[in-house]
Write a structure and sequence with these properties.
Length: 298
């Protein structure tokens, strides 16, 4: 995870106009509610291109299967030769949390020590690991719609982390007094509301990645300094933002900056304010991880 955080920092330090091509991901919606996503990207300084093909079946969680399954193919951009193929589920789990950790390190109060996790799936596991690397986390407040999952998560993760993990019976109780909140669910309706939050909380909104899904009440969006991984993706896919303003064309007016701007413009950030990172996940992240792994094998 620490390696991946560094990989993400290096990636987003590149010039997005000159060095990166990251088209909007096409999706095929399945009649049974599943999604097949195709995510191509090109990273000029690394000399590679690639694609992640991933299926998303949220109902898999009830069957003991991962909700995200697929593959990443890395190609040499000069001759088109296939260099490496990686399991997309594992990479997605790690790089998503690594990007959240990168932004938490840039946006959250330096002394933030109370973390709230809304959701108890794979991303909750990796976000607990990642956020603990960038802030001195001492207390973790956990909630999901399934109380049994919360109890299981707290019991299992207590064996791996020297922090106080506490199960909560309501989202409101879990987020109150939290310095950092990570929403990691497949909810279509808001789960977190503004009056519950500290004035200087940092939020990583990770779960809702389609225009019709959201985890946060609109008031949170309007009361926060909003940062995104990519303007175009946010304007087309971030339900938390789109539904708050009711129009895709107005989403950019909500955004204070993207990851590259946060890294290159230190004055953009005011850690005393409520900050929100709306994560959507980008193909360049997957390809940067694949390139890093390929380098380690050669």
């Amino acid at each position: 995870m620490s390696e991946c955080i560094a990989v993400m920092r290096n990636l987003f330090s590149l010039d997005p106009e000159k060095d990166l091509i990251n088209p909007l991901r096409p999706k095929m919606m399945m009649p049974n509610g599943g999604i097949l996503g195709m995510m191509p990207a090109y990273i000029r300084p690394y000399g590679v291109m690639g694609i992640k093909v991933i299926s998303i079946y949220q109902q898999n969680n009830e069957k003991g299967l991962s909700s995200h399954q697929g593959i990443i193919h890395l190609f040499d951009a000069e001759n088109g030769m296939l260099l490496l193929s990686l399991d997309a589920d594992e990479v997605t789990a790690i790089r998503t949390a690594a990007v959240s950790a990168l932004m938490t390190g840039l946006l959250a109060e330096d002394g933030a020590e109370t973390l709230c996790l809304i959701g108890t799936g794979t991303q909750a596991i990796t976000h607990l690991e990642a956020i603990s690397l960038v802030r001195p986390i001492k207390r973790v407040q956990v909630w999901s719609k399934n109380p049994a999952n919360v109890e299981r998560f707290v019991k299992e993760q207590s064996a791996y982390h020297d922090v106080e993990l506490i199960a909560y019976q309501s989202a409101e109780a879990a987020v109150r007094e939290a310095d950092i909140v990570c929403t990691l669910t497949s909810s279509a309706e808001p789960l977190v509301f503004n009056p519950w939050l500290k004035a200087n909380v940092h939020i990583n909104a990770v779960g809702a990645s389609t225009p019709n899904y959201r985890e946060l009440a609109p008031e949170i969006i309007f009361d926060s300094d909003v940062f995104v991984d990519n303007y175009e993706s946010a304007s087309n896919e971030a339900g938390d933002l789109i539904l708050a303003v009711g129009d895709k064309t107005k989403v950019k007016s909500l955004i204070k900056g993207d990851i590259h701007e946060v890294l290159t413009k230190p004055g953009l950030v005011n850690k005393s304010r409520k900050t929100l990172f709306k994560s959507l996940g980008l193909a360049i992240e997957d390809i940067a991880v694949a390139y890093y792994c390929w380098q380690k094998t050669t």
